[in-house]
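Support case: user asked for a sample of complex input and structure output to validate their parser. Sending the pair below.
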Amino acid sequence: MNSILDTFRSDGLRQWLPLATLVILVVLVGAFQPAFLVVNTLLQLASDTAVLFILATGVTFVIMLGGIDLSIQSMASLSSVVVALTLSRFGYGAFAFAFGLGALAGLLSGIAHVKLRIPSFIATLAMGGVLYSAALVTSKERSITLGESERAYLGWITGTVFGIPNVVLIGLIVLVIAHILQSRTRFGRYSAAIGAGEPAAYASGVKVDRQKVIAFVLSGACAALAGIVLVGRLASGSPTLASELLLPSIAAVVVGGTAITGGVGSIWRTLVGALIISVVRIGMTFLGVNIFAQNIVFGVVLVAAVAITIDRSKIPIVK
Amino acid sequence: MTIDASLSSSQAAKPAPRRRWRIAAWAPLIVLVLLCGLITLINPNFLTFGNMVRISQAAMIPLVLGLGATFIILMGSIDLSVEGGLTLSAVILSMLVLNGANSNAFGVFGILIVLLVGAGVGFANGVIHVRLKIPSFMVTLGMWFVGVGAANALLGGMAIRINDPMIRSLAIERFLGFPWGVWLALFCLLIALVIQNYTRLGRYIYALGGGEDLAALSGIPVGRVRILTFTLAGVFYAVGGVLAAAQLGLGNAQIGTGRLFTTVTAVVVGGTALSGGQGSVLQTLVGVLIVVVLSNGMVLMGVPPSVQIGVQGLMIIAAVALSIDRKRMRIVK
């Protein structure tokens, strides 16, 4: 068992494993269902992946630091409710409002995490409860369908440019921004440093707490954006709209090869991971697997991917 | 007196500053008493026998789940698979006893099978966590969705009505005014107390939470203790599943929704530290009562139930922030 894991851990192989998996999966599904490899289906796949990718991108920033954010699905749902409720009053301002709310929620989780020194999984679990509750109260526990006049504001999400759905373009913009943040800014470097070894990063003068808070703000903002895109696609908002997305999002990050222990990873890997999750989902739908039962597969995939990518030298005592 | 017993055991595990720890151990109980007094002032109906029964009914499932989770948290780990284990157990139970969907009627035997299923889920958690060396929150996060997904797959979107009179009587029939389910939950508390205070496993759990490297060096079979504890917790979640199915009268896939949150809130509000080694199942009883009394009080005051999840979230943050010993941990992830 361990020798197999060791082989996977050898970096050369591990680096390319996610991409190879993706290609194999696409070929497999394509072989069974030739209709899958048509441009339109692939664009549809890309649109379906966009929300998952945006959520996963946000949580990637947090996982890079060695933390976790379990509140993203509640934030996305809350953001959908907020947009649906305020769209008629604020117009385009509703999107900015929801986005700002996401950043604020991330800020609060981050502060609870670093100032009160609460482990991130419990701080964000609690914050998720607060956000879910807020969504339930503001929506009066109902789903809100948008009227005709409100749908006019959704053109920037539902439209297409040269045949490419805007959702895909939004995903690409997020990809570019996140990639620049991660590879070209001080924040990105510091994140990787903190994830690789927090005491060393701290000793070399990195403001660890500030970087962590920024990561949570980004995660909250991405979750809010994902909620906004969901409203655009479904023309409604609901307090449970995104509740099934937590597991696939974290699975996407980990399957892409970002280690849960932090330090190793990139947005590109998350993109590959999100595509893998989408292709697996489509494959299962072709095979007729019940949508809820698909969670069994994602749960197993998540644990398996963590087992392969985790850096055990960093956690002498596994708790 | 009983709290004193848990006090001395925690001190045996970790010689904390005596005075500070003493106050910290009593704080949840004081909060509970103050809370009861406050709600009684606002609404005297709180202290009626009928309301006590209602509170006990609301507390029985969180208590059983909290007992299992306490052992895990005492080790310094976490179990997010509460809802998975509970849902799967409840659904399998509804399929095994006299029900409206198939002709099975295993009765008590069905309950035993369900307890085994719970043990199996916990055992899987433990083995993956220990043998593959994956942090427990990640393993149990996966298991949460595997459990609920499996329950969904078994049901195929249906709900199964339970017709077994014995299961139903857990929620309906009463002894001394309280439903049998409440007595079952108290029996579980007794078992958990015995395991915690009078068995080697209980000692080992405290030792692991107090300092795992030291525990390993003193010859404690750390891996085995962890697997056993996760298995034990799985059995408690299965009992919770039986009670939940009895209370609802059917097995469906949403039966566990929100239970993880209440469980974690109850355990940490009771004063059991997430860092491990400090706490006890009796403190979890106090924590469960705080959570249940608070939500009961909010219902009496007319606060909508959807607000309660948010209040619980804030309680988790407050309780964890108050109980964490910041000197012991420089890196918080």
